[in-house]
Write a structure and sequence with these properties.
The complex is a heterodimer of chains A (171) and B (218). With 171 residues, chain A is of the alpha/beta class. Chain A is 46% helix and 15% strand. Chain A has 2 domains: 35 residues; 117 residues, D-Maltodextrin-Binding Protein, domain 2. Chain A contains 5 helices and 7 strands, in the order αββαβααβαβββ. About 7% of the residues of chain A have low confidence. Chain B has one domain. Chain B is rod-shaped and about 115 Å long. Classes of the chains: A alpha/beta (171), B mainly alpha (218).
C-alpha cells in the first residue's frame, strides 16, 4: 500500500515537472508574441499630391531598395529615411530590407558605385522632419510610427491595409 | 642614243622605293589619325557619361534641398526652434551637405593628353563646366562649414543659426540649378560632336539616365 502511494506520488511529481517545463518552454514565445503585438505599426507616408494610395508590399520593397525610382506617373521618388537608432528604422531594416546597419550602408554604396542610383536615401532626424519634408517634396516617401502621423499626412495602404488594420505587414 | 638598261632599272626601283616609303608614311599617319580620333571619341563619351551622372546627382539632391529650405522658412516663421537639439531634430545637418560630383573624366583627359585631340569649342565648354563645378564645390564647402559653426549656437541665438542655414540653402539651390544648366549645355555640345563623328545617332543618348523611366511602375 505504501509502495503504491509512493509510486503515485512519484508519477504526480513527474507530471507536475512536465507541466512546469512546458510552461517555462512556452514562456519566451508568449513574451515575444506579446512584445510583437505591443510594437507600434509603421506608417508609410507619401507627398499629399501623389496619385498613389495603395501599393503592394513587393512594390514598396522595390522602392525602398532603389530598384524603382519613379512613380507610375513618371515623377521621381525621393526616399526619406530616419537616421540610425530610431526604432522605426530598425523595423524597416528588418521587415523591408532584411539587412542590418552595415549591410544597409554597403548596399547603397554598391548601388552608387555601379551608378544604379544617383544618391542614397535622404536622412531625416525626427518624425516631424520626415512628415514636414514629405509634405513639401514632390514624389517623396517616408516612414514614421503610426502614432506620429498628422491629420494632413497621406498614409499609403499596403496590400489594401492601413496601419490600424489586422494583418498590416509593418508591425 | 640608247639609255643603258641598268639606268631604267634604277629609276624604276627608285620610284618603287619612294612610293613604298610614301605609302608606309601615309599608312602610319592614317593609323595615328585613327588612334587620335578614337581617343577623342572615347574621351567625349567618358565626359558625356560623367556629366550625365553629375546631372543625375543634382537632380537627386535638388528636391531635397528645396524641400529643406521650404521647411526652414516655415519653422522660422513659427519661431519653434530655440535649442540646438530642436535645430538638429527639425533640419539635421547631414542632409545639408552638397552632393559629391565626379571629375575623373577631366582628370583622365588631362593626364592622357586626350584634350589635345578635341576641337577648341568642346575643350572650352568642358573647361568652363569643370571650372564652375570646382567653384560650386569650394563655395558649398565654405558655406557648409559656416553653417556648421552657426548651428553650434547658444540658447537665444537660434535665429542667427536659422538665418545662416537659410542663406546657405538658398545659395546652394541656386548654384545647383546653375550648374545643372551648365551640364545641359556641355551635354548638348558633346552630343553634337559625337553625332558628327558617327559615335551615336541623332536621337540617341550616350547612356540612359540613372534609374530611367523604364523602371517606372514596374
Amino acid at each position: 500500500m505504501r509502495s503504491a502511494n509512493g509510486w503515485s506520488g512519484f508519477a504526480g511529481r513527474i507530471v507536475l515537472l512536465v507541466i512546469v517545463c512546458a510552461i517555462v518552454a512556452c514562456l519566451p514565445v508568449h513574451v515575444a508574441h506579446a512584445q510583437g503585438n505591443g510594437r507600434q505599426a509603421i506608417a508609410i507616408v507619401v507627398n499629399p499630391k501623389s496619385a498613389v494610395t495603395d501599393i503592394s508590399f513587393a512594390e514598396l520593397r522595390r522602392i525602398f531598395l532603389g530598384e524603382q525610382q519613379f512613380w507610375p506617373d513618371r515623377s521621381k521618388i525621393t526616399l526619406l529615411v530616419r537616421a540610425p537608432v530610431a526604432p522605426e528604422r530598425e523595423v524597416v531594416l528588418n521587415e523591408i530590407y532584411g539587412m542590418d546597419e552595415d549591410q544597409f550602408r554597403q548596399y547603397w554604396i554598391g548601388k552608387m558605385f555601379r551608378a544604379e542610383v544617383a544618391g542614397g536615401p535622404k536622412i531625416v532626424y525626427s518624425s516631424d522632419m520626415a512628415i514636414n519634408l514629405v509634405g513639401v517634396i514632390p514624389g517623396s516617401i517616408t516612414f514614421v510610427l503610426a502614432s506620429a502621423v498628422t491629420p494632413n499626412a497621406r498614409v499609403l495602404r499596403i496590400d489594401g491595409k492601413l496601419p490600424s488594420d489586422p494583418g498590416y505587414p509593418l508591425k | 642614243m640608247r639609255k643603258p638598261a641598268w639606268l631604267a632599272e634604277v629609276i624604276v626601283q627608285s620610284i618603287a622605293v619612294t612610293v613604298s616609303i610614301l605609302l608606309a608614311l601615309w599608312v602610319d599617319q592614317w593609323k595615328q589619325r585613327r588612334a587620335s580620333e578614337s581617343l577623342a571619341t572615347e574621351s567625349m563619351i567618358s565626359f558625356a557619361k560623367e556629366i550625365r551622372r553629375n546631372e543625375a546627382r543634382l537632380d537627386d539632391i535638388l528636391p531635397f534641398h528645396e524641400g529643406l529650405r521650404s521647411m526652414l522658412d516655415h519653422e522660422d516663421s513659427l519661431h519653434t526652434i530655440r535649442t540646438q537639439t530642436q535645430f538638429q531634430s527639425a533640419i539635421g545637418v547631414d542632409g545639408l551637405r552638397p552632393p559629391s560630383l565626379l571629375q575623373t573624366a577631366w582628370q583622365t583627359a588631362v593626364a592622357t593628353g586626350a584634350l589635345t585631340h578635341l576641337d577648341y569649342e568642346t575643350v572650352s565648354a568642358l573647361s568652363l563646366t569643370y571650372t564652375l563645378q570646382d567653384r560650386f564645390r569650394e563655395d558649398s564647402r565654405a558655406g557648409f562649414q559656416a553653417m556648421m559653426q552657426a548651428s553650434d549656437f547658444k540658447p537665444g541665438e537660434a535665429e542667427m543659426a536659422l538665418h545662416t542655414a537659410d542663406n546657405y540653402l538658398r545659395e546652394t539651390v541656386t548654384s545647383e540649378n546653375d550648374l545643372r544648366a551648365t551640364y545641359e549645355q556641355a551635354e548638348a555640345i558633346l552630343k553634337k560632336r559625337l553625332v558628327a563623328v558617327g559615335a551615336i545617332a541623332t536621337g540617341d543618348s550616350v547612356e540612359p539616365a540613372i534609374g530611367s523611366h523604364a523602371g517606372a511602375g514596374q
